[in-house]
């Protein structure tokens, strides 16, 4: 009798580690530049999406699948063109990390898609009671339902994310991580928890003035 081999299921996923940064002076020097660049890209990209895919254009299909990355590239080019036209500077030369900006715009894309779906639901499925309840509890009109706000101040940008790219995010020692643009990021706690794990991305979050948190996302596979 031939026994069938039992298939072992592998569980895949990601895990996030959080650490307090102990060299905030170094981060303070570069974080304002990140905030400025992100705000410009975010605002111009959001402007483009509202103009072409907003509540008045829900019948226009938002690019998905393979076309999504070309759409993100279009947003980048649009932002650079608008910055040159209206602000008089070369936004491309200010870039701190192309991958990080793409990551930020991908997040904006996801939120904008959610906004569009919310507007579609409001238009096609809300009852008159739902509409009146919303208008009674909100200062904005119906088009403001789920609306994404522009970054009116650079301080509205609270974090920056870097995707792993050719080991540019790397553990230097048990208390120090190398991160693109920022260089050495030091932690109050030991970083050995992910020493032999595959790093997917690293994020620096500004909690308050002179206080930052490091988040490291790793990929794992267990059976």
Number of strands: 7
Q: Reading side by side through the largest sheet, how are the strands ordered?
A: 1-7-6-2
What kind of oligomer do you see?
single chain
Sheet bearing the most strands, described? 4 strands, antiparallel
Q: What share of residues is helical?
A: 40-55%
Q: Would you give an account of this structure?
A:
- This protein has 223 residues and is α+β, with helices and mostly antiparallel strands.
- It has one domain (11-222).
- Helix content is 42%, strand content 22%.
- It is built from five helices and seven strands; from the N terminus they run βαααααββββββ.
- The protein has helices at residues 24-53, 67-87, 91-94, 98-125, 128-137, and strands spanning 11-20, 159-163, 170-173, 176-179, 183-186, 198-208, 211-222.
- The strands form two sheets. Strands 1-7-6-2 form a four-stranded antiparallel beta sheet.
- A hairpin with a 3-residue loop joins strand 4 (176-179) and strand 5 (183-186).
- The radius of gyration is 22 Å and the shape is globular.
- The model has no long low-confidence stretch (mean pLDDT 93).
List the helices and strands and how they pair.
Blueprint: E1 11-20, H1 24-53, H2 67-87, H3 91-94, H4 98-125, H5 128-137, E2 159-163, E3 170-173, E4 176-179, E5 183-186, E6 198-208, E7 211-222
Antiparallel strand pairs: 1-7, 2-6, 3-4, 4-5, 6-7
Helix pairs in contact: 1-2, 1-4, 2-4
Give the gist of this structure.
42% of the residues lie in helices and 22% in strands.
Comma- or semicolon-separated keywords:
single chain, 223 residues, alpha+beta, 4-stranded antiparallel sheet, 3-stranded antiparallel sheet, 5 helices, 7 strands, 42% helix, globular
């Amino acid at each position: 009798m031939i026994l069938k081999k039992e298939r072992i299921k592998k569980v895949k996923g990601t895990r996030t580690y959080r650490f307090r940064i102990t060299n905030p002076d170094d981060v303070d020097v570069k974080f304002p530049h990140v905030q400025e660049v992100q705000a410009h890209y975010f605002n111009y990209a959001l402007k483009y999406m509202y103009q072409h895919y907003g509540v008045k254009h829900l019948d226009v299909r938002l690019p998905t699948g393979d076309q999504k990355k070309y759409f993100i590239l279009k947003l980048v080019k649009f932002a650079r063109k608008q910055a040159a036209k209206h602000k008089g500077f070369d936004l491309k030369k200010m870039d701190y990390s192309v991958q990080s900006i793409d990551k930020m715009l991908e997040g904006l894309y996801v939120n904008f898609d959610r906004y569009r779906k919310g507007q579609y639901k409001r238009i096609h499925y809300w009852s008159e009671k739902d509409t009146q309840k919303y208008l009674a509890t909100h200062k904005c009109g119906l088009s403001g339902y789920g609306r994404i706000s522009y970054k009116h101040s650079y301080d509205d940008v609270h974090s920056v994310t870097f995707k792993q790219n050719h080991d540019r995010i790397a553990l230097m020692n048990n208390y120090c991580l190398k991160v693109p643009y920022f260089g050495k990021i030091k932690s109050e706690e030991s970083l050995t928890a992910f020493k032999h794990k595959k790093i997917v991305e690293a994020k620096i979050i500004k909690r308050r003035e002179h206080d930052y948190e490091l988040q490291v996302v790793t990929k794992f596979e267990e059976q």
